[in-house]
């Protein structure tokens, strides 16, 4: 008996794409839901040929069905992304369909384990070991040291050898001293040891695949791909890792003035947004713990 399409898809994700068990479960669950819906919606067994005939109207009907389960915009957008991946695997061309609009608001932090999972997946997807080490180091700089993406990719070999702190030049050429966690320092040193382009003091520390300066857009693109695979919100951007750094420090009792210095904000008002972020995060935790709240 032939295995169901969702199960074959799960095998592909685990074996060929080497996705995490969490990602495989999430994507398989979406495929199971889609196949069950299409069988009822179209009144026929779902085969790869059936998936090839799926229209934009069919997908809109599926999303409307999922809305009935209480799906909000962010979750619906993730569901649509997972559906597209399943259709692509089946050899079908996903119909052009604009995803749900995800409201932008106060930046929400991601949990520490999510930040690590994101960095791990980005590095796992890299085409070469040195690129994997590069991406891991860059993302740890954002989450573990609170750097802006532009600040991280703008570092030169002059920061080596590393110590307990690092001098970072931010907006308006303002320089600040950033403490380096041992894990962040180890990640940078591991990359520096294997990069094929060297670490000359006056050259970019982080290089692109062809040896030029690493574009921030390359990291953003990798994060977009990884967050979809992990089922994370569209708000999970490289800058969100910096937000998470700040929010988690604030939650541990960091002083706003000290946080302002660490982030390189010109004014305290820019840092005060994290008091709202932290309150929003606590409210989320409360609501999740108390469904009737």
Keywords:
single chain, 2 domains, elongated, hpI Integrase, Chain A, mainly alpha, 14 helices, two-stranded antiparallel sheet, 293 residues
Layout of SSEs?
Layout: H1 5-15, H2 21-42, H3 48-52, H4 56-67, H5 73-89, H6 112-124, H7 129-145, H8 149-153, E1 165-169, E2 175-179, H9 182-194, H10 216-230, H11 238-251, H12 256-263, H13 268-271, H14 273-289
Antiparallel strand pairs: 1-2
Shape: elongated
Strand order of the largest sheet: 1-2
Number of strands: 2
Largest sheet: 2 strands, antiparallel
Quickly name the level 1 CATH class of the largest domain. Mainly Alpha
Find the CATH topology of the largest domain.
hpI Integrase, Chain A
Helicity range of the residues? 55-70%
**Kindly, what is the distance between the CA atoms of the first and last residues, rounded to a whole number of angstroms?**
48 Å
Structural Rg? 22 Å
> What's the CATH architecture of the largest domain?
Orthogonal Bundle
Rounded mean pLDDT score: 78
The low-confidence runs, each spanning 5 or more residues with pLDDT under 50, are 264-287, 289-293
The SSE order reads: HHHHHHHHEEHHHHHH
In DSSP terms, counting alpha (H) and pi (I) runs of 4 or more, how many helices?
14
- How much strand? under 5%
Tally of discrete structural domains? 2
Structural class, from secondary structure content? mainly alpha
- In CATH, the homologous superfamily of the largest domain goes by the name Intergrase catalytic core
Could you walk me through the main structural features you see in this protein, from its secondary elements to its overall organization?
This protein is mainly alpha-helical and 293 residues long. The protein has helices spanning 5-15, 21-42, 48-52, 56-67, 73-89, 112-124, 129-145, 149-153, 182-194, 216-230, 238-251, 256-263, 268-271, 273-289; strands at residues 165-169, 175-179. A hairpin with a 5-residue loop joins strand 1 and strand 2. Helix 1 (5-15) packs antiparallel against helix 2 and helix 6 (112-124) crosses helix 10 (216-230). The longest helix has 22 residues, at 21-42. It is elongated.
